[in-house]
Amino acid sequence: MQVGNKAGTLPANSALVNIQRLIAQYYEQEPDPSDPLQQVVFGTSGHRGCSLVGSYTLKHIAAIAQAIADLRASWGATGPLFIGIDTHALSEPALYTTLEVLCANQVDVVAAYDFAYTPTPVISREIVRHNFGRNTDLADGIIITPSHNPPTDGGFKYNPPLGGPASPFFTEPIAKRANEILQDGCRAVKRLSWRATQECPYLHFKDMLTPFVQELAQVINLPAIKASGLKIAVNPQGGASLRYWDRINELYGIGVTIINRDIDPNFSFIPYDYDNHQRMDCMSPYTMKPLLAVKDDYDLCIANDPDADRHGVVTKEGLLPSNHYLTSIMHYLCHHRANWPQGCGVGKTIGASMMMDKVIADAGFSVYETPIGFKWFSEGLFKQQLCFGCEESAGASYLDFSGKPFTTDKDGFLAGLAGAELCAISGLDLVSYYQRLTTKYGNPSYGRIDEPTTAQGKQAFVHLTAQSVQAQKLAGQQIVQVFTTAPGNHAPIGGIKVLADGCWFSARPSGTENIYKIYYESFLGPEHLELVRQEAVDIVTRALSAQ
After folding, report:
1. Mind listing the UniProt keywords for this protein, alphabetically (predicted)?
2. Coil, strand or helix at 156
3. What pLDDT is stored for residue 1 in this prediction?
4. Cα 201 vs. chain centroid, distance in angstroms?
């Protein structure tokens, strides 16, 4: 991965986004429905785009909102629709458009008082609380966020009645209907004026902050964290979690220090990432420089992205690799939650460490491995068939102390606080805890790279099969399995995974760039890991060229 010359530095004022232009283009750009780049496309986490290039405009949002209004009743969602936004510049304009359309369609929509910023896990919690144990008038939700994407971007996520990110079962008909609406010039959109929307009886307001924070005690041992005296720093990274961390600290007295209280749609306090773009990636050492700068003053540092569905954790030794941290809290929780249902599964994505498989099996649970995306865990968490779910890109959630669902979307609060509870109860720091696990289960080396390809090359991944891999060995180790569907739910992974004795790799194309991603791991040391990387690229190249 080539690192840009600006990585880790703050943007100059002259380089910041022109917010006025960004918002003006949201209202004025006319998308071309015949251009695939300007159509509604639901990726891993909803529709994302930018008003400056005509992929995120008022018409896109109106069409998506109308599609949801048309379809939600067919999924049993005839109850309230909970809606939240993050701090990106395009989120608030998109919120107004969405409310105008939903209210015109007589959907009972619930927003936070004063349209306050609302984290993704809070919307998930509202849906779960309303729907758990209920069969009729189910709630659903919308979070208007592009997650950790750059300041220029907008995003729109739909959460169905299970409370988590929507699977293709929901997103494919939404996108199909929205694009039909766009193609017809949005004539099917019902929409009130903003004044009429504010006075509409279908618009409701709620304090979502207080119940979420109060109910955290049902899922995290906050008294133990307080008693431990841990010094904890939190960087909301200019996101929706700020007020929530303040209330958590106020209610539970766990000694949190907020190191950045700024809310700025330019995200001027976020350093450039590896590719000279600003993004609020909690797992980037460049983006996380503000927390790394204070690591020696705290026992544990936690960061969230703008909608607080992701987490990043820094210790005195530095930024923890996501796989290390997730494996540690997975192990801790599996051994400290006596009321979790017996025989249920623990979810992980195909890009996550095989170390997790060993931890899960040793704790007496079953491994539930899925394609990339937290959406594959929502149903299992809601139905208590999974007790924990995580994806390698720093997203996790889990059941409460009683074994009931709390959130079924990625939850940056639960994921970050689990580490604090682990330290408080075990008496170990996070690095020492993981080292104990490696003594028992082995010490894997892990990597991820992006390889350039073409649009045609990305499409070729669809046609890969187990027979596409002709090699018998990977870095000298016997290949034991090649698969193109996930072992847990048998859903297509969008690429291939090659499993060998003591090592593996998986490869899949990016949804937005002409690259494909290779995740790879070896239990035989860093030098062997490099061999795995080299041979993974060769195996994928040969498989694609044979199509």
Report:
1. Isomerase, Magnesium, Metal-binding, Phosphoprotein
2. strand
3. 65
4. 33
- Other CB atoms within a 10 A radius of the CB of residue 391 amount to 26
Q: Residue 387 and residue 400: Cα distance in Å, rounded?
A: 9
What is the structure's pLDDT at 109? Answer: 98
Q: How far apart are CA 150 and CA 277, in angstroms?
A: 7
Structure tokens at 50: 């930018």
Which residue in the block uniquely carries the two structure tokens 């690591």? 295
* Ordered mean pLDDT values, 10 residues apiece, the chain (547 residues): 90 96 97 95 88 98 98 98 98 98 98 98 98 97 96 97 96 97 98 98 98 98 98 98 98 97 97 94 96 98 98 97 97 98 94 96 96 95 98 93 98 98 98 98 94 86 91 96 95 94 94 83 97 96 85
* Token pair recorded at residue 49: 């785009």
In 3D, which of 497, 461, 460 has the Cα closest to residue 479? 497
Residue 301's DSSP bridge partners are 233, 314
Q: Which residues pair with 509 in a beta bridge?
A: 516
| Residues taking part in catalysis | 147
Strand spans (E) along 399-465: 445-452
Cα 157 to Cα 199: distance, rounded to the nearest angstrom: 26
User: Distance between CA 259 and CA 284 in Å, rounded?
Assistant: 18
The residues pairing with 520 across neighbouring beta strands, listed in sequence order, are 447, 505
What is the crossing angle of helices 91-104 and 58-71, to 10°? 40
Q: Which residues pair with 141 in a beta bridge?
A: 82, 159
Residue position matching structure tokens 């025989």: 343
CB 520 within 8 A of CB 445: no
Beta strand 153-159 with 140-144 is antiparallel
Q: Are 254 and 125 within 8 A, CB to CB?
A: no
Residue written as token pair 């017809």: 184
Neighbours of 203 (CB within 10 A): 20
Q: Round to whole Å and give the CA distance between 539 and 492.
A: 19
236 phi and psi angles, rounded to 5 deg: -70, -10
CA–CA gap between residue 408 and residue 389 (Å, rounded): 9
Q: Which of 387, 372, 377, 392 is nearest to 323 (CA)?
A: 392
